[in-house]
Design a protein that fits this description.
It contains 2 helices and 5 strands; from the N terminus they run H-E-E-E-E-E-H. The protein is mostly beta strands. The chain has a domain of 84 residues: SH3 type barrels, CATH 2.30.30.790. The chain has a 5-stranded antiparallel beta sheet, with no helix packed on it. A hairpin with a 7-residue loop joins strand 2 and strand 3.
Length: 128
């Protein structure tokens, strides 16, 4: 048990990236590095977060699902992966569950997730 905490503490000192807070139902774009031989390239994966697993940041993973060419594609990303360059929050979804596996069985318009309403303050001059 102490060995695990020792390894986690060594990783915590190397952490440089901070990501936006996201939850299941949010649409995010994950930019990650792919190594091909001696060259690196960046690829973006945009989709809906269907679950977040793990308690500590070092064991935490999140699953992102997108539909590409009519075929559903899911990818699991470790939260503390050194290959993740950036996570961009595109839409905040309104869902009632922490794990939205029911999206796998839905197609078309039923597979859409409603966007959460954000508190937008109106300008005083436009209200008059």
């Amino acid at each position: 048990m102490d060995l695990i905490k020792l390894v986690e503490n060594s990783f915590s000192q190397n952490k440089t990236a901070t990501y936006p807070a996201f939850k299941a139902g949010d649409t995010i774009t994950v930019t990650y590095r792919i190594r091909e031989g001696d060259k690196d390239r960046f690829q973006k994966f945009r989709g809906v977060v269907i679950q977040i697993c793990g308690a500590t940041p070092y064991t935490k993973t999140f699953t992102v699902r997108k539909v590409s060419g009519g075929v559903g594609v899911e990818r699991i990303f470790p939260y503390e992966s050194p290959f993740i360059e950036e996570i961009e929050l595109n839409k905040v979804g309104k869902v009632r569950r922490a794990r939205i596996f029911y999206l796998r069985n839905l197609t078309g318009k039923k597979a859409r997730i409603k966007e959460a309403k954000r508190g937008i303050l109106k300008d005083a001059s436009s209200a008059e």
